[in-house]
Amino acid sequence: MTILLEAYNLHRAFEKTVAVHHVDLTLSKGEIVALLGPNGAGKSTTMRMLTALLEPTRGSVTYLSHRIPEQIVEAKRQFGYVADQPMIMPYLTGWEYIQFVAGLYGCSADEIKKRATPLIERFALTEAIHKKATGYSHGMQQKLALIAQLAHDPRVLLADEPTVGLDPGSASEMQAIFREYAQDGNAILLSTHLLDMAQHLATRIVMMTRGRIVASGTPEELTQGGARSLESVFFQRTGEVTL
């Protein structure tokens, strides 16, 4: 199985606080991996290290043999990142933003149009795509950010709470796009609090708490073939309790 992303011994400390403890993580071709954990578990810090937005205290990150930071430009060409709060340039139109982002990766206008247009139509953004993004809702910005990242055809997609602000129809369409993207031989790391979505979308689930990975496996493995709910497994492994 082709490994597209490999993180080894990732560790991040902030003065006296350790946010991530020696995490190992791989993503292989065709995988959708859901990263689950309570607030403060270290998910966002892990994502930021994987995207080179934050330097690890120790450890390494490699995309298709390109290691960060030694080969950071080559590594960044391999992945796309959709943040929970997308950084949309408000005074560009949606289409200009897509062109700007994909253009940074050297994509031609024809390539961008070919990849982005079907996604724009699927997300019902056709009427808004030539309007200034300053008038976009949060959900529209989430969809725009995803389209812009997929337009440069990355091998790995890192998505931090990508369905926040989406209506049910758009969230369902996003999940369908994720499945198709993985089936094309790519991989996704999806950070989410939505256990139901993780169970039905992910091929593998990784649970974190207090900066450590405490469980990893397919949904079937973690739930013992459905004998237990993913929610009960999550609460047990992370130490979270219901009210």
Write the layout of secondary structure elements.
Elements: E1 3-14, E2 17-28, E3 32-36, H1 43-50, E4 58-63, E5 66-68, H2 72-76, E6 79-82, H3 94-104, H4 109-122, H5 138-150, E7 156-160, H6 168-183, E8 187-191, H7 195-201, E9 204-209, E10 212-217, H8 219-222, H9 230-238
Parallel strand pairs: 3-8, 3-9, 6-7, 7-8
Antiparallel strand pairs: 1-2, 1-4, 4-5, 9-10
Task: From the structure above, extract its key features.
9 helices; ABC_transporter_ATP-binding; 243 residues; four-stranded antiparallel β-sheet; 26% strand; 10 strands; single chain; AAA+_ATPase; alpha/beta; six-stranded mixed β-sheet; Rossmann fold
Q: What's this model, at a glance?
A:
The protein starts with a strand and ends in a 5-residue tail after the last helix.
End-to-end C-alpha gap:
42 Å
What is the H level of CATH, i.e. the homologous superfamily?
A: P-loop containing nucleotide triphosphate hydrolases
- CATH overall fold name: Rossmann fold
Please list the strands of the largest sheet in the order they lie side by side: 6-7-8-3-9-10
Mean pLDDT: 95
Major sheet description: 6 strands, mixed
Pick out the low-confidence regions: none
Discrete helix count: 9
CATH structural architecture: 3-Layer(aba) Sandwich
SSE string: EEEHEEHEHHHEHEHEEHH
The CATH class label is: Alpha Beta
Shape, principal axes of CA atoms: globular
What is the number of strand segments? 10
Which value, in Å, is the CA radius of gyration?
18 Å
User: How many separate structural domains?
Assistant: 1
User: SS-based structural class?
Assistant: alpha/beta
Portion in beta strands: 25-35%
- Give the fraction of residues assigned to helices: 25-40%
